[in-house]
Amino acid sequence: MIDYHHEAQKVSESAAALRKGIPEEMAGFAGMGKGAYAEGVLSAKVKELIALALGVASRCDGCVAYHAKRVAQLGATRDEVLETIGVAIQMGGGPSMVYGGEALRAFEAFTDIKR
Question: Is the pLDDT of residue 42 over 70?
Fold first, then answer.
């Protein structure tokens, strides 16, 4: 079983190492993220739910952990996460179904919401 708190921390540590080693590239990446996740027609929460779905569809452990943490911080409900996972499964097939379960466990690791 994946420790999602540790997995999310690894993502942050990797990003810090990359910021040190390739600061210009990472500044560009951070700028793109700032623009992409800014409140707009879509809320930051909806944008993070989209990112979670993409993490599930691409089967990226770090992505699932990081974006599950963010949607929890932004107040997503378990039902919102489940519907997001449903779309990701439809788009990604069987492998996304496996990662959909991982995404739900990741979200639950960052909240008190469990069923």
Answer: yes
